[in-house]
Specification:
The protein is α+β, with helices and mostly antiparallel strands and 161 residues long. It has one domain: Aminopeptidase (3-Layer(aba) Sandwich). Helix content is 37%, strand content 25%. It contains five helices and six strands, in the order ααββααβββαβ. It has a six-stranded mixed beta sheet, with helices on both faces. The two termini are 13 Å apart. It comes from Aliivibrio finisterrensis. This is Flavodoxin.
């Protein structure tokens, strides 16, 4: 797989989240806004020595209340359409193919991303940072470490999209 395929499949998976009998108008509008975002140029990120402050925890999203914190963080990238994108992202049903991560400083979400590991390569997108207390490199280092454990593979780099 390459980063373009990852982006297209991720978009299709997220789009299908509101293919239900009675989606809310806000979630459908939020999906449309989300899907209009252009693909970012793929960029390889290599593991570095940067670490997170001790007050910040990075969690794999495994339950709805963490999904809400993840959605709040990712939706923060939209100003005018924040409410609609938030409504859309909170509808996500977790699956094994994609992993959502949220970083919390105490209980406050400060970073989020979506990740997938295929054939020993980690792809990551929707990276959102909402605090100066965290930087992208330290956040991605922690996500890679967690994905390495989950997939029993030593990840030393990832493809950001």
């Amino acid at each position: 797989m390459n980063s373009e395929t990852f982006f297209q499949q991720k978009q299709a998976w997220l789009s299908n989240q509101v293919n239900v009998d009675f989606p809310t108008p806000e979630s459908v509008k939020g999906r449309d806004v989300y899907l209009k975002q252009p693909a970012k140029a793929a960029e390889e990120y290599t593991l570095s020595s940067e670490t997170l402050p001790e007050t910040i925890s990075v969690l794999l999203v495994t339950e709805h209340r963490l999904t809400i914190r993840w959605a709040i963080t990712v939706a923060s990238q939209w100003d005018a359409e924040y409410d609609e994108v938030l409504e859309f992202l909170t509808q996500i049903d977790l699956c094994d193919d994609y992993q959502l991560f949220v970083a919390l400083d105490g209980m406050k979400p400060v970073a989020a991303c979506l990740s997938q590991v295929i054939d020993g390569i980690m792809y990551v997108s929707d990276i959102a940072l909402t605090s100066d207390a965290i930087n992208e490199h330290a956040f991605l280092n922690t996500v890679m470490a967690q994905q390495s454990i989950q997939f029993e593979s030593t990840l030393k780099s990832c493809i950001k999209n």
